[in-house]
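Job type: complex structure
Entries:
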Amino acid sequence: MKKVMFCMGIICVVFLMVTPASAARPGFDKKEIRIGQWGPQTGPAAPWGSVARGSGLLFNVVNEQGGIHGRKIKYFIRDDQYNPAQTVAVVKELVEREGVFAFVGGVGGACGKAVMDYLGKNKIIWVGPSAAITDFVFPPKPYIFAVYPLYEDEGSILTKFVVEKLKAKKIGFFYQNDAYGKDGLEGGRKRLATYQMNFVEEIPVEPGEKDLTSQMLKFKNAGAEVVLMFVNPTVATIALKTCATIDYKPQWVSSDTLSDYGLMFKITGGLWEGVITGAFGMTPTADHPLLNMYREAAKKYAPEERWGTFYLAGIVFADPLVEALKRVGPKLSTEACLKQLNSLKDHQTIGPKVTWTPQIHQGTDSIQVQKCGPNAEYILLQDWTSNDLATWKKQPAKKK
Amino acid sequence: MDMKRDYYEDIELFSSGTVLFWSVAFLVFLFTLPLYIPSYNIYLFNIIMVHVILAVGLNILVGYTGQISLGHAGFFAIGAYGTALLMIHLHLPFLMALIIAGLISAFFGFIIGLPALRLEGPYLAIATLGFGLTIMHIIGHWDIFGGRMGISTPPLDLGLQNSPYSFVIEGDVKIYYLILVITVLMVVCARNLMRTRVGRAFVAIRDDDIAAEVMGVNLTIFKTMSFALSAFYAGVAGGLYGFVVSFFDPFTFNLILSIVFLVMVVVGGLGSILGAVMGATLITYLQFDLLKNVEELPYMGEILVQFSRKWLTVIGLANFGSVALGLIMLGIVIFEPLGMFGIWIRMKKYWKTWPF
C-alpha cells in the first residue's frame, strides 16, 4: 500500500510540474468568425434566455447579407440554466474547443462574474453583458464593453420623469436589498436632491419575500402617489396583487428588468396595465426601418419566437460588435477589433447611442420610458433620455 | 463466491487481489486522465469530484445512519464561504483554510444533529431544509460575505500568501490533481470509517435506533457525530467547489442543490460508498452535459423536446432536465431500491456465476 501511495505521489508531482498549455484557436478563419453566448434556455430563468436567441437573429441577418467582409458569423448558444458553475463549463468549452472570437450578451450578473476573469485572461472580447454590474466596467476591463444602462442612471432618469412629467409630490421607493436595488435608489435620491425633495418612504425587500402587506400599507399610509420599484418579477407580482386587495392604486414605475410586458401582464393577471417602466431598447412595435427588417427576418428564422423586449435586447447587445467587425475590414484580429470598439462613437440602431473610449467601457446612460397598455402593448412615453447627473462620465477613475 | 472465514476478512479494504489490481489501475487512469481528454472537460471532472466528496459524506448520514438532510447545500455554502473568506481575510494557506472551514461546517452539523435526536423522518427533513434556506439568506444579508452579489475566490495558494513560500496553483489541470488527491483520501477515509466500530454503530442506528441503544450505542454521540462528519465532507467539498468555479453567490446554494445532492445518493445507492461515487458522477454528467443537449440526441431528441414544449412547461420552452432527473429518481426508487450499486451487484453476480 505504501508503495502504491508513493508512486501516486510521484506521478502527481510530475503532473503538477508539466501541464500542457491550452492552445486556443484564433477565433476566426477565412470563412467564419465564431461568436458565442450563454443564457438560460431551460429552468426557472428561461424567459431571459430569449436574449441569446435574439442575438442569433441579428447574426442570421448579417450572414444573409453576405457576412462581414466575406466571413460568415458562426454563432454558438449554450444553456447554462442560470447557474454560474455551468456558465464556466460552457464558456470553457466554447473558448477551448470551438475557439470563439468574442462573446455577446450573457444573462446573469453572477454568471458573468464567474467567467469575467477567465475571458480576460484568454483575451476574448465580450460585448454587451446583459446585466448592469459595475464590476464589469469600473475600473474598465480591456476586453469588456457594456451596453446595458446602469441602474443608478435609470433610477435618476425615472425619478426625473416622475417629478417633471407625472408632477408627483409624494414618491415612494421599493427596492430589492442588493446592489441592483440600492444602485437604483442612489440614482433616485441624487435626482430628488436637486428638487429639494425626499422619498416619502424607502422600503427594501428580500428577493424571496412572499408577504408584502406591511410594506404596501406603509406606502399607502405615507400617501405615495407614485412608487418606483427596483425588484424582481415575483416580488413585483406579489406587490401589485397585495395593493389590489388593500384598495391602494399608486402609479407604479419600474426598472427595465421588468419591461417584458407580455410576461408581466400574464403573471400579474392583467394588473401590469398602466405600469411605466424604463427600457433599454425601443418598443417592439415601433415603426422603424431597421426594426421592421428584423421583424420580417424573425418571421423567417424564428417563427415560433415571441417578439418581446428581451429578444430585441439580444440584438441591441450584439449590434455594436457587428459594427466594429465591419469597420475593422478584412484584416481581422482581436487588437484591430478592440481598437474599433474603443473608438465607437454615438453608434445607434434600435437601442441607445453607444460610445466607448479606452477609458470608459460603459457605453450608454440612456433609457426610454414606456408604458404597458391594456393588452400588454408598448406605449412610448419618452424617447431616449440620458442622465445629466451621471458621475462616471466625468470621473471614471474615481468610481469603483 | 466470496467465502469469508473470519471477521477480518469481511472488513478488508480490498476484498481480493483482483479488486486491489483494478482499484490501482483505475487510480492510475485517473492520474493520467488529463493526457487523454481535452482541457475543457477537466473542469467537468473537477465538479464531478467535488460532488463525489459531498455525496460520500451525505451517504454517511443518509445511507449509513438513516437520517435525512435537505440542508446540505447549507454546509456546502459554509465550506465555500469559509475557505474563501479565511484566505482573503486571514491569508491562511489553502489546505489549512479548507480544513478549518470543514470543521466550522462540522460544528454546524453537530448543532443540527442535536434536534435530530428527537426528530425523525419528515420532521427532520423540514428542520434541515430550514437550516439550508436560513444559511442562504443569512449569507445574502451580510456584506462581509459579499452580500447577494457573491464573492470571487482569491488565487489558490497552497503555501503562505505573499511570501517566498507562496505556491499558487492555476488552471483546471493542476486543480484537478489537487482535488483528485483530496477526493481519493476522503473516499478511502469514509470506506475505512465504515469498517470500524463507529461505522457499525451508524448502521445499527439506521436499522433500529432503540435496539442500538439497548446494545450500548450512545445515540447522542453517534447521531451528532454522523451529522458532523457528513457536514465536514460537505464543507470540504464546498471549499473546493469555490475554487473550481472561482465565483459564487448565495443563490448558488439553493434548495434545488440540496435536493440534487440527495438525488445523487439515492440514485447511486444508499449505504454504499461506491454507489455515492457512481451517483454523483452520473447526475453531474446528466446535469452539465447530456440533459442540456437533449435536442442533439439522435432520434429521441426531437420527440422529447416536442413533448416537453407541449406538456411540461409554462413558457413554451424545453424544460426537460428537471423532469428527467425526477423520472430517473422515481424509476430507481420503484425498480431498483439499491440504486446503481444494486445494478452493479447484479452484474457482478451474473458474471461470477456465469453460465448459470
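Summary: The CA atoms of residues 126 and 177 of chain B lie 38 Å apart. The first helix of chain B runs from residue 7 to 10.
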